[in-house]
Write a structure and sequence with these properties.
Blueprint lengths: L6 H6 L1 H19 L7 H17 L8 E3 L3 E3 L1 H28 L3 H20 L3 H19 L6 H32 L4 H10 L4 H17 L8 H8 L2 H26 L4 H23 L5 H22 L2 H28 L15 H4 L1 H15 L5 H15 L3 H27 L13 H19 L2 H12 L13
Antiparallel strand pairs: 1-2
Length: about 500
Amino acid sequence: MPGGYTPQDFYFLLPEMVLTGGLLALLVIDTVLPRDRQAWLGWFSIAVLGATAAALVPFAGLATTTARGMVAVDDFGTFFKALFLVAAAITVLLSMRYLEVEQARPGEYYFLVLCATLGMMFMAAGVDLVTLFIGLETMAVSFYVLTGFLRPDRRSNEAAVKYFVLGAFSLGILLYGMSIVYGLTGSTRLRDIAMALTAAPASPGLRLAVILLVAGMAFKIAAVPFHMWAPDVYEGAPTPIAAFLSVGSKAASFAMLLRIFLEGLPVVSADWRALFYTLAVLTMTVGNVAALTQSNVKRMLAYSSIAHAGYLLIGVVAGTPRGITAMLVYLAVYAFMQLGAFGIVVMLRRKDVVGDELKDLSGLRFRAPWAAFAMLVLMLSLGGIPPTAGFMGKFWLFSAAIESGYVWLAVIGVLNSAVSLYYYFRVVVFMYLKEEEVPASPLAPSPALMTALAVTVAATILLGVYPAPLFEFARASAATLGVAPPALTMLP
């Protein structure tokens, strides 16, 4: 074939090609579909995501290989791609009624959601710095536009500008670090970089590159002190996009972080582990303390998301197969918890109510008992209360840290989890113990929204009671990054 490409190269990119074809078809359909029938574009987007997931199935359990040395085909990438597709599908379900209330056109919106998902997939599978950069920018540019999608809303516009400016600045830092690595090794492929650095002595330039790469990735995962954009962006962005940003973007950034540091820079692991140790402590503590005073639910969830990034960094610091496995498990359960919590905020949005303040949750158990119960389960899980999925995720993260000798890091994580219970239970208090201050129009959740909430709550409960399949999938995925992890055992 031209350029030396083979049919196998394209086969390895089948999920990405299906998604690309689907999002291009979405644009064409958007131009010909009558305005009064554009609500069907959401269901078409769900179908595209389903077709992409079906194209992903043949790659589960496949022996690790690469497409032209640029994209890895392994269980690690498959795990994250499945997570992105599920998160995108739930985001689309949350968005259908939201777009109607906001009177926004769905075509461009769903197109950008699918584009962001495509970028995430390349971030998870990329084993070359160029591939990772392209995936990162595909995702980031999509989110810049989606954040400011509500043009008449000044908060949305302000959030988009802040996100774009700070994102461009952090990207420059990240690229500077990548350029130094390329200059030292003469390659952009992660395995070649690792081999070149193993054969060469450590240098001040390499340590500078590590610092820059850590800083650039810290912005993407909203780690302290690179977190200041997150609360404003989450508050101003459309609520379903804030949910997708807090889940999909964070998971993709952690996938990229693991690829770069575990596959490309293992020779300087002592340096980047020390940096991530400090970031983990700061991120957990500042995120939880700042969340204590928030009265806006979206800002509270933003600071909560920052704190959860700190928990996830514990797995990076541990750096062991068990630590990486625990990270993957926690990312999966966090996705369901966070999407469900934002889904309740979406449900509260009506023409006469914004629905993102704590007072808007007042008396929810009287107006919608099922929604109050759903939020209760999600808050308990975010706080790490058994037998929810959040408890299982935190248990494995903290035990992995202890096993690796980072006992104090685990202790700080447990103390921060205790602090977080205060603001999570504040939500419960407003729902169950306070009465609605000003009567508003009744809640009218759509079938799509109800489906999304049912899936997130069911997954939160089920993965807390029976997490074995997720653990095994995560264990097999972590194995493709290096040393095979030991078999996991369930709680006694």
